[in-house]
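Handout, section B. The chain below has 545 residues.
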Amino acid sequence: MAWTQVYTPIADSVGLSALCAAIPLFILFYMLAVKQAKGHVAALLGLAGALVVAIFLWGMPVGLAVSSTLNGAAFGLFPIVWIIITAVWIYNMTVESGEFEIIKYSLSSVTNDRRLQALFIAFAFSCFIEGTAGFGTPAAIAAAMLMGLGFKPLWAGGIALIANTAPVAFGAIGVPIIVAAQVSNLDVLQVSSIAGRQLSLLAIIVPLWVCVVMCGFKRSMEVLPAILVSGVSFAAAQFLLSNLHGPTLCDVASAAASIVSLIALLKVWKPKNVFVFEGEEVAEVEASKYTGGQILKAWAAYLILAVFVFFWGLGFWKSMLNSIPGAAFNFPWPGLHGEVLKAAPIAPDGTVYGAMFSFNWLSAGGTAIFLSGLVSIPFMSNYSFGKGISCFFRTLGQLKLPILTVSTILGLAYVMNYSGMSSTLGIAFTHTGSFFPFFAPILGWLGVFLTGSDTSSCALFCGMQKDTALAVGMSPELAVASNASGGVTAKMVSPQSLAVATAATNSAGMEGQLFRFCVFHSIGMTLFLSVLAYLQAGPLSFMLP
């Protein structure tokens, strides 16, 4: 007989039940922020806490708890870890082949100022990768590139994570917004428009935020033209495309606009003072020692990657790949599919909580990156397929702890989802009445912290966001868009993202330090979006379409 979820297991008290449901999150926060534990240690302890709470307080059968954990871990391995492995592999190959030295030169020859390098790579270029790939790829590539330019691992990872916020809701060719609209049965263009009217404002702020983190407000004013050009050009393109076209091309076009605008600005303007970190010497901008063809060849791996992931993000292309015999397998997860029933108020009593696992190996984003890596090898100097394959297996060894961390975190998230603990937390937020617009982005933040994915957060909470918004008299499109927007600020502190960033900078075990580096910035940006959503539900309602 199927088991029915319970949402208020403690004396019919939603508040107390929500506090108990948050125990695994408290464990994660404590281990990362206070104890500065390694990511996999914090994840394993959080998972243990989730299992104990799910089984003994929520009454979840042990078999279901174990099966949901394994289902989440499998999803963590594929498609998420598959993306991480292939993205870091391409970076490692560019380093081994020597092409990354030319890439570094091409960037440092544009500017030797650390602030401008961060704007180019951590903001603009990583936003481009977010738009084409998402799911941790931008943080991995941007952090690795910054470290290659001389940034220390903590700064490289932290800056990459903070800068990669405004594009997340439109990442992977708009998947989070599309999912948000689908699960809430709302018009995708309406949701996209509102998210664009929120995140375009954040996009203007993020470049300044990044620079202030690096060097303080006063020294950030020295590069104010670059801050404004990069942020405003990105925000303008994001606003226009999200409102007139939809979510699919927002990030790609916005990032391209930002990169082109920055390059054009630096043709006519340079900062008077060059900023480097304490203890560094200002590197001279060298005269050209590589031809345009050599630079283009060095960038070939990332250009090819962008082309591959762009096509893999198109719906018709995915459908075509999945239609190839043997390219996609969908099967019910053993011991879980059909064994859990949802109950009111989340869904009508007796609604089956499915657990289908999709192994679409050919259309997966990681496969696109892997194939782009294979295609890129002939463009790498003094490199071969044999060296590339050896590099792939070395990359697997490099990532063994992050792989454990990511799969464990997804196992934790699935236990919370299938036990009803996540929904209990969501229900607690819905009791805020007229203040619910303020909490709508925070709910999205919670979902991303739990799963590491804005797409997953939207799938988890957007149906509830719509129903609650209708109950409290709020625009359902605003609530759903705020869920997607609020989730972007949690990417920088989600354990999955921390694991990706430390893996890319070869600093596994520093997840706790990186969490402390980013957590207050995450809170600050979330509060900005919460206040904005609250005002858009009231005095600033004219901002809505």
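Note. The longest helix spans residues 62-97. Compare this with the example in section A.
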